[in-house]
């Protein structure tokens, strides 16, 4: 075992790579950044070193390989390059781990093949995750590479929450069940919410609302996930930026038989042209709130539909948990959009849920309670940190291996 203590975390998306280099001795970020618009000809790399100023460079990234090499150059320029002997491992966010991967996993050729086999159930995510792994392995073939799966935290869901009520034999043959996603965030945030209340995570029940571009809710009882809103794929559940969330499956048959759309066209419609974007032409919550405040009817309807679905999940998970100690808002929308938090919790005093308007309007990067003292359920804003969680799980694995 070497004394190397740094972990590089890669979160490769379809057109971007987010990264953080973290020293596990003290959790400090030696560097972080984002390479975006990969393959689009107008790429941009934003790199933030531990000390010193943020650097932004415009350069075309024909593919993920080029983007990761540019990231490696930025790290090298800071003296923390990929060739550093201090680097202990590279941790990768992998969105779908299927039924097999329920814990952080050392990546081998065989593991990679299994992640590839899961592409049909995470078509927007797993291909990019695989590319990130391949490029990182080619740059540092000697280093342990670890996959941390979005699905893993949800593997504890009871069978009745993970099952769809369809023919059991068909479901089993095709591995059709609810897996859930954003698990790394739900795990981190549910634990952080407990700590914010000064309590042991094993003692508290939390509803976590991860509201980013993709969005999902989870019910976490004593640190264990008991239900979540995404399913076989990251399409089920909440209204998202471009994804519909829950629809009657009959919609698919109807669009195919009566509307004449192919299955691929319906897939594309529900994943990329629905949600907030489909309802009002915008998927950025900031823009939607601005338009709605100016009286734009489509933006108002998109906002209201988003909130209505969110409230249904809050109510549903309240019943699933029986007792709720905290509701934690996280990710881009959850952390920043006070009107979303206000609307999602309005009128729920009978359930012991209330939000203090003043506390809710505070802008801060810190975890904070936004409910008044008297509120039985603590409502909180808890910034997620998927990268730190991935780094910790990666480091723990290579240290016990
Ligand atoms: N100040 C803000 N107010 C409202 N929404 C915001 C704000 N800042 C960011 N967002 C929303 O957060 C979303 C992105 O969230 P994020 O968690 O970064 O998503 P992802 O990781 O899925 O890309 C954006 O689409 C935007 O709508
Ligand atoms: C699984 C998922 O929806 O991830 P993201 O929000 O990053 O798209
Ligand atoms: Mg995210």
From TrEMBL:
The active site is at residue 150. Mg(2+). Can also accept Mn(2+). Gene3D superfamilies: 3.30.420.40. It is found in: Cytoplasm. Substrate binds at residue 93. GO terms for molecular function: acetate kinase activity; ATP binding; magnesium ion binding. This is Acetate kinase. It comes from Kitasatospora atroaurantiaca. The lineage of its organism: Bacteria, Bacillati, Actinomycetota, Actinomycetes, Kitasatosporales.
